Amino acid sequence: MADLLVRNAAVVVTMDAVRSERADADVLIRDGVIHAVGQALAAPGAEVIDARGCVVTPGLVNTHHHLYQTLTRAVPGGQDALLFGWLKTLYPIWARFGPEEMFTSAQVGLAELALSGCTMTSDHLYLYPNGARLDDTIAAAAEVGLRFHPTRGAMSIGESAGGLPPDSLVEREPAILEDMTRVVDRFHDPRPGAMVRVGLAPCSPFSVSRELMRDAALLARDKGVMLHTHLAENDEDIAYSLARFGCRPGQYAEELGWTGPDVWHAHCVKLNSSEIELFSRSRTGVSHCPCSNCRLGSGIAPVRAMRDAGVRVGLGVDGSASNDAGNLVAEARMAMLLQRVSRGADAMSAREALEIATLGGAQVLGREDLGAITPGRRADLAIWDVAGIEAAGAWDPVAALILCGPTRVRHLVVEGRQVVREGQLLTLDLPRVVERQRQLAARLAEGL
Known about the structure:
Blueprint: E1 4-13, E2 21-30, E3 33-38, E4 47-50, E5 54-58, E6 60-62, H1 83-94, H2 99-115, E7 118-125, H3 134-144, E8 147-154, H4 173-187, E9 199-202, H5 210-223, E10 227-231, H6 235-245, H7 249-255, E11 263-267, H8 273-282, E12 285-288, H9 290-295, H10 303-309, E13 313-315, H11 328-343, H12 350-364, E14 381-385, H13 397-403, E15 411-414, E16 417-421, E17 424-425, H14 430-446
Parallel strand pairs: 1-4, 1-5, 6-7, 7-8, 8-9, 10-11, 11-12, 12-13
Antiparallel strand pairs: 1-2, 2-3, 5-14, 14-15, 15-16, 16-17
Helix pairs in contact: 2-3, 2-14, 4-5, 11-12, 12-13
């Protein structure tokens, strides 16, 4: 791989230990790794990206998504529902998916993330109808070129057993554990710089048994992989936990081994102070999904309290059926705004929101090799053109990324390779993929 030199950036936001920002700086990349950050760097024979008029940041990291849902945006009947009613509307549609729907929707969702500055994303796939497998989304990520942390999710308690999902979408728990073992053994790469790592992710406490939660935790620790689920998303979620388990979600998670540095939970909108303290003490991570929480009326997660207590927090776009977008830099802006609505105008700065979207997400996903532009870290960079209309008149180009834009990258580099150049995705014939997505969505709608 040839060296890559990002030259003449207006600002390089390093996210190093002191959060330094380097003006008029270059970044030299060698063998997929940040080699140097400085001025007037020399690299004979290197490929050059001219970053004049641009802000360079670490690639954004998305810690929670349901990529398959890009096929079910703005579905009538679910547009104005709370979480449980929204799920009831969409489960029958998702039950008609198959491998092609999973693959194509993942391509579209990953492309959308890439264009918004995201270099790494997790994905929570918890239903496998009609022969679909986690392999389908992993193949899509390989084509798009993003770093990927898919999780083998599951649902095992259907309506007939008191759960929320229809029986047609649940699996037998022995088969779930068997496939969890298969995908970890086949795809998980624990090495620094890994392009694919796999996690285990029973969907939620209201769709799997206590035994599966416990067994998944035991399996994850045996295999050395991370754990992920939804937790404390809204008031309905809390009421279910109290009625079904006799305790709050945080206590339920702790009892079953679902706290620790190898665990991250999505949403956590309704965590109380004792649960926040538990997550801080155990180094449990949280994926904050502000736009989805707004769309479903779930509330405002106590991110300020979490951060002040030392809880690791990253951002997630959540599924495109509940967001309905997959733009991670827009998610960072919403995270900042919601904390200000909740706690006042000084509750979160633009730079803190950018930190959560980059370094914070990398830390939540256990990626100490990512999240900063410093020598030795992997070369995942987002390059933002702040010379355009979105940031015209901005006095502070770094804060402008969150406060006014742009919301689409000029260039995106993953593991030292360009995935986006001049605002265009290089790795897919995106118009063709989008057209196929439209055809698949129309076919699903016609079947209702």
